[in-house]
Amino acid sequence: MLEQTSHPVARRRGFLLTEAVLIVASILLAFALDSWWDERKERVEETEILQGLQEEFLQNRATLNFRVALDAVDGILAELDASLGD
Questions:
Q1: 6-20: average pLDDT
Q2: Cα radius of gyration (the chain)
Q3: Geometric angle at alpha carbon 38, from 36 and 44, rounded to 5°
Q4: Could you give the CA distance from residue 21 to residue 26 in angstroms, rounded to a whole number?
Q5: Rounded distance, CA 21 to CA 24, Å?
Q6: Which of 49, 65, 74, 78 lies 20 to 30 Å (CA to CA) from residue 34?
Q7: CA triplet 26, 28, 31: central angle to 5 degrees?
Q8: What is the pLDDT of residues 21-73, one digit of tens each?
């Protein structure tokens, strides 16, 4: 009985099969790394957007509070003017 590894054609097929498996595994690994990197970039971008929204929300709330306070002062001044004008 002949051993497969001793036959030159069988040995070459074994090397080609091993090389093909390594190439496919390398390509799949590259796809996985690319996908991981894209997801990482998206998470960083999402965090930046959420931080910007939070900052904008806080600024809008401060502006709204200031305007409400101004309206309250305007109302008090209008009442004083009305009571002093009588």
A1: 88
A2: 37
A3: 105
A4: 9
A5: 5
A6: 49
A7: 110
A8: 999 999 999 999 999 999 999 999 999 999 999 999 999 999 999 999 999 99
Report residue 73 as tokens: 């002062």
Residue 10: predicted pLDDT = 83
How many other C-beta atoms lie within 10 A of the C-beta of residue 64?
A: 10
Looking at residue 86, the DSSP 8-state letter turns out to be: -
pLDDT at 81 over 90: no
The set of residues, in sequence order, having a beta carbon less than 8 Å from that of 14 and lying 6+ positions away, is 4, 5
| Sequence-ordered list of residues with C-beta below 8 angstroms from that of 11, at least 6 positions apart, any chain | 4, 5
Report the predicted TM-score, pTM, of the whole model to 2 decimal places: 0.58
Token pair 């509070």 is found at 65
How confident is the model at residue 1, as a pLDDT? Answer: 45
